[in-house]
Structures are given as C-alpha cells and as structure tokens.
Amino acid sequence: MTDEPKTTYKRVMLKISGEALMGDQGFGLHPPTVERIAREVQSVHEMGVEICMVIGGGNIFRGLQGSAQGMERTTADYMGMLATVMNALAMQGALEALGIHTRVISAITMNEVAEPYIRRRAVRHLEKKRVCIFAAGTGNPYFTTDTAATLRANEMSCEAIFKGTKVDGVYDKDPAKFDDAVRYDEVSFDDVLQKRLGVMDASAIALARDNDLPIIVFSLDEPGGFKGILAGEGTYTIVKD
Ligand code: UDP
Predict the structure, then answer these.
(1) Which ligand 1 atom minimizes the distance to the CA of 87?
(2) Pair type for strands 237-239 and 215-219
(3) Where on this chain does ATP bind (predicted)?
(4) Which CATH code for domain 11-239?
(5) Strand partners, 216
(6) What spacing in Å lies between the alpha carbon of 220 and ligand 1's midpoint?
(7) Cα–Cα distance between 85 and 232 in angstroms, integer?
(8) Residue 83, H or E segment
(9) Which pTM value belongs to this model?
C-alpha cells in the first residue's frame, strides 16, 4: 500500500446520475456498467477515502417526465425517488461483490430494504470505512438527487462533491454539439448560476455555495478518473467561490 497515491481528501460525496448505470441501453440498469463504476469506487476506497454516494434515478423514472405525461407531480416524484433505491441496491450489490462493506440509507423508510437515514449512524458507518449509498433523494418531491447529494455531503461533512458525468468538466457550451466549446478549469458558483452552466440544478448549487462545498466535475467514462483526481491528476472542473 505504500506506493498508493496520497490524497488530501478524507471524505467525499460521489454523485452520479441514474443514466450512468444504463450503459448504451437507453434505459434501466446495465450490470457490467454498474460493476465498472463499482471498481472505480473500489480504487478510491483502497486509498482510505471515506465515500458517500448518491445515485439518481433518471435511467428508470423522472418525476418531471411523469408529470409532463399527465401524472400528478408529487406521485411522479415519489416514483423517481423509488427508482433511486433500485439503483442504490444495484450499486450495493456490485460493491459488496468486490468485498467492500456498504450501507444503503434511504430517506424514505423501508426497513426491509434499506436503513433509515439517521445522521449520526451514517457518520459512524463512514468512520468504519463503509461506503454509504444515500437513496430516495431528500425524501421530498420537487427536489433532485443533485440537491440530495449536496444536502447529505454537508450533513456528512464531506470535503467535496465529485460529480461524475460523460464529459471531463464544465464547458461554456455543450461539447457534444459545439467543437469550439471551452472547458473551465475553475468556475465560481455565481457564474454557474448566472450563465446557467448546467452543472447541477440551482438549488443544489446554492446549497453548495452557501456552505463552501466545492463541486468537482469529471468524466466517469475515463478509466481511473475518479482515483486520478483524488491523487491530484487528470482533467476536471472545480466549482468553488
Ligand atoms: N426526486 C425527488 N426528490 C428528491 C430526489 C429525487 O422527488 O429529493 C425524484 C424526481 O422525480 C427526480 C427523480 O427522483 O426526477 C430521479 O432523480 P434525478 O432526476 O435527480 O436523477 P438523475 O437525473 O440524477 O438520474
């Protein structure tokens, strides 16, 4: 273990969207992709970093889509939150298969499936190097899992949120559509809000800004990317004041 890269981070939040788990399928869960991401988490866990995770539900259900199709919004949002529990369980299975101890902690009580959220208990899990996967978002409709990740990161005293995406940072315009899109190395919370840079939704950005919690946007498709950034390498954008 002596040649392991050193990290200055002791505790981090990894936020990934549900879509990150669906591979090229366009919907649902792709087990080899879940396993690949679990290995990325494993490599950071081996560095001794305490890891919180929040996984979205967009690969299964998003409340806004349901409400656009005529469903009542809050019901649709609860369905979205339940989708995140499925993703959390899939990630738990993949991590435990790699020998990592985990807890799925749900904001909506479902004792047979996951632990209820009790802040001090979750902190203890982290101290024991268990990966805590926070499921069911904030437990409230009209929020997103980006806000849930920011909320839990604050509650758990994480030093940063790592937002894994398809691209290696925040660009001034969509790099998938514009060849001349420019990546920021660093950008302020206020610029993200004013320029609507689409890092996370506005509530999440404001909550991170007001609590001085930096957000590191990086590519989850880059093998070793998560560990690399923790070791001080790689390409990413840091959002901070
Ligand atoms: N959701 C919610 N409250 C929360 C978190 C999530 O109502 O605190 C619902 C909401 O309907 C959302 C869905 O769960 O659309 C899935 O979460 P999200 O869209 O954030 O997933 P992602 O885009 O990250 O995959």
Answers:
(1) 25
(2) antiparallel
(3) 15-18, 58, 62, 165, 171, 174
(4) 3.40.1160.10
(5) 162, 238
(6) 19
(7) 32
(8) helix 73-97
(9) 0.96
Q: Where are the domains of the chain?
A: 11-239
* Ligand 1 atom nearest residue 18's Cα: 25
Q: Annotated binding residue at 139?
A: yes
Q: Is 77 annotated as a binding residue?
A: yes
Question: 239 vs 9, 41, 143, 146, 187, CA distance in Å?
Answer: 16, 22, 21, 14, 5
Please list the pLDDT of the chain residue by residue as tens digits (241 residues). Answer: 445 556 789 999 999 999 999 999 999 999 999 999 999 999 999 999 999 999 999 999 999 999 999 999 999 999 999 999 999 999 999 999 999 999 999 999 999 999 999 999 999 999 999 999 999 999 999 999 999 999 999 999 999 999 999 999 999 999 989 999 999 999 999 999 999 998 999 999 999 999 999 999 999 999 999 999 999 899 999 999 9
- To which residue do tokens 């390498």 refer? 233
Decide: 92 and 34 in contact? Cβ < 8 Å: no
78 CA to middle of ligand 1, Å?
9
Closest ligand 1 atom number to CA of residue 63: 11
Angle at 34 between CA 98 and CA 214, to 5 degrees: 95
CA of 64 from ligand 1 middle (Å) equals 9
The token duo for 161 is 């949120």
Cα angle value 38/216/155 (rounded, 5°) = 80
Determine whether the annotation assigns residue 15 to a binding site: yes
